[in-house]
Amino acid sequence: MTPAGLELDIIGVPLLAGLLVVATHIPLGREVLRRGIIFIDLAVAQIAGLGVIAALAFGWEMGGWQVQVIAAGSALLGATLIRGFERFWPEIQEALIGITFVLAAAGGLLLLAGNPHGAEHLSDLLAGQLLWVDIDQLIAVAMVYLPVLLIWYWLGPGRLRFYLLFAVTVTVSVQLVGVYLVFSSLIIPAVAIRRLQGIAAIVTGYGLGTVAFAGGLLCSLWFDWPAGPTVVWMLALLGGVLGIVISASQRGVTPE
Amino acid sequence: MFRCILLLGIMVATSATVAAEVSVFACEPEWGALAQEVGGNLVKVKSATTAMQDPHHIQARPSLIAQMRRADLVICTGAGLETGWLPLLLRRANNPRVQPGQPGYLEAASAVSLLDRPQRLDRAEGDIHAQGNPHIQMNPHNLTAVVKLLAQRLSTIDPDNARQYQANLDDFLSRWQLAIDRWEQTAAPLKGMTVVVQHRSWVYLSHWLGLEQVATIEPKPGIPPSSGDLARLVAQMERQPAEAILLAAYQDDRGATWLSEHTGIVNVELPLTVGGSEAAQDLFGLFDDTLNKLLAVAP
Q: How far is CA A188 from the centre of its chain?
């Protein structure tokens, strides 16, 4: 029994943050998987992160509006670029996305070479800061996510619209939960529920995301592990089990 | 019914003994060790970092928030050493007893006068601390100043045991002063010894013992040396060789090892804080071990 195990409210705000991420990432992730552009998440997340690093290198303070504008601007540019890849070079699209990711990551390393806190910024960018999230940050995040969700469910994902909504969402999520968790919360649920359709798929996806964030944060509290990486593993474990259960149950209903 | 009351009585009694303990959250092991010396069995000490971690930066773990919430006293170096994580942790834990300005919040650096105050403040100069160099623990006279302030704060927070804290403080200080006299005697041959340091963690030690710091491997605080920096260091060492290269147990030793291999100057890994080496298990061991290691390579 760890003493920290008693203090459930430590993970209250991080769990709310996780639910916000789940709300937007489940529908976006399905679309990413449908289009077969898996590494767009890593690329756009890394580009948004590169924007944050560049803004810090210019001397702006973390959390200031300038940082957000630069991060969102670079993510939008990145997303438009990737949309261009899809349009003009569809046959090598995945390769170009991969190259974009590596360039953004290497660019971050170059920009941070002379920064004494460089390693910290990079590790925060990858693993996220889920435990430090406070309620003010949550409100700011919700103010970005809600319009995204409204547009998504009301107008549906258009071509360019998908890329733009994706860029805005990922800019916010990457600062909240880090590149690793952005990728896994988009892709793992989408893969797990790929055999389901319509409302059943969305509801199951939301369920998986919620349980994984809650379980991951509880594990983090219980074993005193960093929150972000723990949730990533919880998502993968639960997603794997769910995928097997769904395919087994479908085989039971309609034997092939 | 009777058993119920008995059980309740035991629960109240145990919770009372738990509440009687003053919970101390130390940012670095040296302050934890100091709190243990003054608090004895009246305090329960947790250290947020170990000697193997860089106190400039730590990962957010749930237990840190939980410990900060329960803390009656937070003792940290201050002077900007923990700016990367302590303000976030204080805000997240939201414990009114230990917010800055409260008796439960103690910055050790406030008890001593800091060296290395920068002439000008510029981010481009690396990880510099506006108030001065925060690595104050390697001069035992600084610890004397800090421990007095610490005993005062413990007595404010837990006035019922003020006498005990005073007695513990007197006992510690008499042993500490004897040790300082002994250290200053044995360390006499170290005066004027020239050293290269990895990070500017040794200013207070150098100041105390009269070591002469001739070069720093990090070109700017917190920034690893480039190949050009290393080449310049080798050239400088060829003109005027130093007698030792000092680095702390937690620091990356690649720069120091490289320099040592290219100049033949011996590398000395010092504990820097309690737990930094086998022998540095308490504050006395910290200085014993540091001096032994320096004397072993002294000219």
A: 11
Chain-wide mean pLDDT for chain B?
Answer: 87
pLDDT digits (tens, 9 = 90+) for B123-166: 555 566 677 889 999 999 999 999 999 999 999 999 999 999 99
Confirm or reject contact between A129 and chain B (CB < 8 A): yes
Residue B159: the pLDDT is 95
CA triple A112-A117-A121, angle to 5 deg = 70
Assess A87–B contact: CB distance below 8 Å, yes or no: no
The CATH code for residues A10-249 is: 1.10.3470.10
| CATH 3.40.50.1980 in chain B, residue ranges | 10-182, 188-297
Q: Which fold has domain B188-297?
A: Rossmann fold (3.40.50)
Q: Is the pLDDT of residue B210 over 50?
A: yes
Q: State how far the Cα of B109 lies from the Cα of B149, in Å rounded to an integer.
A: 11
Cα-flanking dihedrals φ and ψ of residue B122, to 5°? -155, 130
- Report d(CA B173, CA A225) in Å as an integer: 39
Hey, is B46 helix, strand or coil? strand
Distance from CA of B50 to the nearest CA of A (A): 16
Give the closest-approach CA distance of A43 to chain B in angstroms.
25
As a whole number of angstroms, the distance between CA B229 and CA B126 comes to: 15
How distant is the Cα of A29 from the closest Cα of chain B, in angstroms?
28
Residue of B61, B69, B90, B250 for testing the chain A interface, max A β-carbons within 10 Å? B61
Instruction: Please give the single-letter amino acid code of residue B172.
Output: F
Please tell me the CATH code under which domain B10-182 is placed.
Answer: 3.40.50.1980
- Give pLDDT < 50 ranges for chain A: 1-5, 256
